[in-house]
Predict the structure.
Amino acid sequence: MDTKKIWIITLGTLVLSIIIIFGTITYYNQRVEQAQIPNGKQSVLRSYQHSPADPGELLYFIDYCKNVVLFSDLEELNNQEIREGVCTVERELRELALEDNTLLVSNYTPSFSSLDSIISFEPDNYIGIVVDLKGVVRKYDPSLLEKDKLYFCSISEPSWADQFYLQTEPDQDLIFDEGDVSCGGIKTEGTHTIFFSGSIPQAESLNIKQYLVNEQTVSDVMNKKSFLEIKEILKNYPIIWQMEKPINL
């Protein structure tokens, strides 16, 4: 790779990092301001489903989802062979009555449910789906965890990609009208998750499949321009995790 290409890649990575860091700082400052609100009589004016409004909120949401599925002691997860769940976000608009005036306060609250407990999805709701990757691999073939690195591709149908999330991994995702494709390699050392997020589409169901592939296939898939061609390639590889849930239209 020549010096010019390296410089362009480095500059692009730097710009993306600045955007994410700025969003995180902004979001953190908003959380601090909320925490410093004085005591007073509060009433909930409105509660509604919310999607992350900037990269900072998205990173907080992702961290929350991953930490719950990997490290929490929730009984509903401890009883599962594979720890997997669904995260949502609610924003409450509250009126805070003080001695001499009133304030409007907006609270951002993520919540978590086991994937098994979700019968169906509601269209347009923003969710995150998170799965313990080591649990998936261990169930499929524990000997694979002895390898240094494993390679995966996923297909989601229909498309429900989150634009903020795509900014965090711009080289690992392909977006088509028919669905979304993501491929990459992950070192087996440490803790890892399968993570998807976006707004539930107006469709009959949401279907996600995770394939175990090899390094060459990752390259082949990511260079394809056709969703059908990619599906044809991945037909030759094992599905190690999948999910399909109906959508209430």
Observations:
- The mean pLDDT is 80.
- The first helix runs from residue 3 to 35.
- Residues 95 and 104 are 5 Å apart (CA to CA).
